[in-house]
Amino acid sequence: MGHATAKDPKSMVIRIGAGEVGTSVSQLATDVRKVMEPGTASRLKERRANKLKDYLAMCGPLGVTHLMLFSRSESGNTNLRVALTPRGPTMNFRVDQYSLCRDVQKIQKHPKGMGKEFLTAPLLVMNNMSRPDADNNSKVPKHLESLATTVFRSMFPPINPQATPLKSIRRVVLINREQSEEDDGTFVLNFRHYAITTRHTGVSKQLRRINAAEKLVTTKNSRQAHMPNLSKLQDIADYMVGQDGEGGYMTDATSG
Fold first, then answer.
1. CA 19 – CA 45 distance, rounded (Å)
2. pTM score, two decimals?
3. What CA dihedral angle connects 223, 225, 229 and 230, to 10 degrees?
4. What is the distance between the alpha carbons of residues 15 and 18, in angstroms, rounded to a whole number?
5. Helix (H) or strand (E) holding 52
6. Highest mean pLDDT among 67-76, 179-188, 223-232
7. Is the pLDDT of residue 89 over 70?
8. Ramachandran class of 245: left when φ > 0, alpha when ψ lies in -120 to 50, beta otherwise
9. How far is CA 37 from CA 152, 156, 233, in A?
């Protein structure tokens, strides 16, 4: 179970024509459901007989705010529709390229993303979603740029930097807009999903090791929750050995 709240947006990732999109698109839909965790129907089972109106009828009772619809055209193109319920709008995209999660993990030496990363929503980062010189006569009008930004932002719960613990942010969704290769005024959206690890900066490697040791050892004063106070010690060895036989991180050893 994730940590989604009643106010967070909720989504359903659906394959339209579940038996016709193919195994790769089916796996892509499964991967996108992981991206949208925890506020999504991760165990949704589509049937061939299900129509779009059937899913729309369930949105109200279940509190679903967004639909992501994958389909395949007769020419073999993979399409994605992102719809806000119950009255829209709906954005249509053609999926040019995609990489499946299992393929990415195969080429990684230490793959991540199989633990607690999906208990909290990802941090959304959007780049180049609008142009300063865009207007209503542009290939992509200014109001459509604003609409796309609003729709994508509404798909993920907002994160308050002052109130959200840094360690709770374990994933990032990056949406980057680039000029298409045809240079005809159209754009390509790169949708990327990352598992991240947060670390303290400006702290030496030695102090990070001491801090890690503090977290592993429980003392009477619960000092593992704080940085060590070395002001009264003459040498770092005094801290590692402990004062008057108390504390410290040295283990007893005998030789023979």
1. 12
2. 0.74
3. 90
4. 5
5. helix 52-62
6. 67-76
7. yes
8. left
9. 15, 10, 48
